[in-house]
Each structure stands twice: as C-alpha cells, then as structure tokens.
Amino acid sequence: MTQSKFVLVCTLLSLGALIAVQVGQNQLIPTIDGKAYYQLEDFSKVKKFDIHIHINTEETFFIEQAQADNFQFLDIIDDRPFGLPMDGQQKIAMLHLKNFSKNMAVATTFPVKDWGSDDWMENTITGLEKSFLDGAIAVKIWKNIGMDLRDGNGKFVMVDDIRLDPILDFLVANNIPLLGHNGEPRDCWLPLDEMTFSQDYYGSHPEYHMYLHPEYPSYQDQIDARDHMLEKHPDLIFMGAHLGSLEWSLDELAKRLDKFSNMYVDLTRLSNLKLHTFNNRKKTRAFFIKYQDRLIYGTDSSINSSTSPSEFKKDINDRWVSEWKFYVTDEKINLENFGELKGLKLPIDVVDKIYSKNAIRLLGLQNW
C-alpha cells in the first residue's frame, strides 16, 4: 500500500470512530452522501420516547416493556365521557409517576362539565395548579370541545372560544405546553365509500360519523377554530395530536408548521404516513427532513387492566419494532389494500429528533 493510500484509510477509519462515539454503540451504515443510518437491530439500543400513551391500570406490564425496549413516554389524561373517568386516570398516572419518574411524564387535563358556572375559570386554574404540583408538565385539550360541549344556548363551544383564553394565557405564562386533539380525521366527514382508512370504525359507530350529522361543526370548522386559537396565542407551545388532524395532506400540514412556529405534531396516524410514502416516497421523506424539528413519535396506545400482560407486551413490542422499521430502513413494507412501499430510511440525526429530542424539548425535560 502506498503512503498516500495508507493515510487515506487511516483518516476514514478515524472519522468512522468519531461518528460511532457521537451516536453511542449503535452500528452505522456508511452511505455515499456521508450520512449515517440506524439499522433495524439498533431498535433496543436507542433511547426513544412515545409521546402519546394512555395508561388505565395500576398494573405495570406496559412500563416493564417500555423499559425493555428503551422507551420513555408521556401518559395523557383525557376528559372523555367513556372508559376510566378523568379523576381515575389522574390517580393512576400520579401513582406510576411516583414509582417510575425516570421513565415517564404526565399530561393532565381539565373538566368542562361545569362550563357555564361563574367559578369554572377559577376552579379550572386551581385544578391545573394542583396537577402541576403533583408532577404534571403538560395539558391536554380533547375533542369534546368542538364536538360535544355546548353553551347555554345550545351552541357548540369551539377551541377558540374567548372563555378559554384565560386558560391558554395561564399556560403561556407558565411555559406549559398544550396538546390538542381537535376534531377528527377528515374521513369522519366523508361518506363511507370515500374514506381512506376509517370505514370499519365509522360503519360500526354511525353516532360518531359526522357525515351523517351535518348539524355538527364541519371538519373545516374544527381546523379553522384550532388555527384561530394559535393565532390568538402565538407564544403557546402546542402539539397537534394525530398529525394535527391534517393527516390527509402533507401540504396542508406544512402550511401550519410554517405559519405557527411553536406548533409540533405527533405521528400517530401512521397509516396515512405510509400512504403518503406509497404515493410519493421522495416528497414524504423530504417533508420529514424539512420538518424534523417539529415531528414527534407516538402511538396513542391504551393500556387497560383487562389486557393480557404477556399478549400486550408482545403486541406493543411488535408495533414499536414495525414502526421503527418504517422510519429507519428502506425495506419493503405492505400497506393493506394499497401495496408495497419502501421505508423512509431517515438519517440518524432526524430519527433521534422525532424519537426523542423533540419530545424532550417540547416538554421541557432537558435533564432527561
């Protein structure tokens, strides 16, 4: 080997060692563009965060699997009219937080059952302050505002209602992020035969199929109200759940991310992201690269006491690994009723952001 070739080889080997130190012990795949990529087998080695979890049981089997798979997570409390009541969700969340504070964080919420009362605002802020003292670090606002709650005149209360402004101002003043599930997927307002993924659900639950209820606010009404809320509160740190209910269009989602600098979205409607990739992988991958600082991994998993612990552990592990495959490899993936697509194979720095760093920044968990 000539001296010049020897120097070149040593330089490349040194550079490779430097990259390995920067990302830990994960095996890297060198590519011609000079970027490094995770492999499928790196899944359990990489520290990850699932920002959309609902724990409805005191049992710890989900947390055990999260630990095994190197996941931290946000447990979210909802003001929902079904399942475990809000107070029960809060009690369970705080129990787990006490025992697993290095593994999880908690997003609280507020009830709207006394919306019309004179002391609702004062009681709501008092309740939030207590939740923060107990350890909550974010607030969830649910789709019941916009799709269920009505004022004394029978008019739907939307998320940009002026009576919510003091709550949002309080969050801004205390640097508390708001998570918003506003409206539903656009499929909810479409006929069954025009839906992309939701035919089975809305076919079985016509009471939630907004196409059959034109007297309710429209899909655009929900999006407009959410956007108006953000316009009124530009300093509000906000994460739109379920791709901000803009799952059907990366272009529409990009418009909001461009307009609202403090807006993030979670990636919980993966079927839509796979469809975007199936239709135009290059565009979808470019979207992830461009908005890598604003996208946060999540699954919207619900953990209930009736679930078989061993079966659930396998199911959530399978799901986490499958979704990791979509983001970090370019292997073939089947999208039911559509066909095969290739995974996005995002660079390590992008994966680290959507799987951990963005969640930690959004939630203010800088010491994690």
TrEMBL record:
Residues 1-19 form the signal peptide. Residues 160-365 form the Amidohydrolase-related domain. Keywords: Hydrolase, Signal. SUPFAM superfamilies: Metallo-dependent hydrolases (SSF51556). Pfam families: Amidohydro_2. One of its GO terms (molecular function) is hydrolase activity. Gene3D superfamilies: Metal-dependent hydrolases (3.20.20.140). InterPro entries: Amidohydro-rel (IPR006680), Metal_Hydrolase (IPR032466). This is Amidohydrolase. It comes from Pricia antarctica.
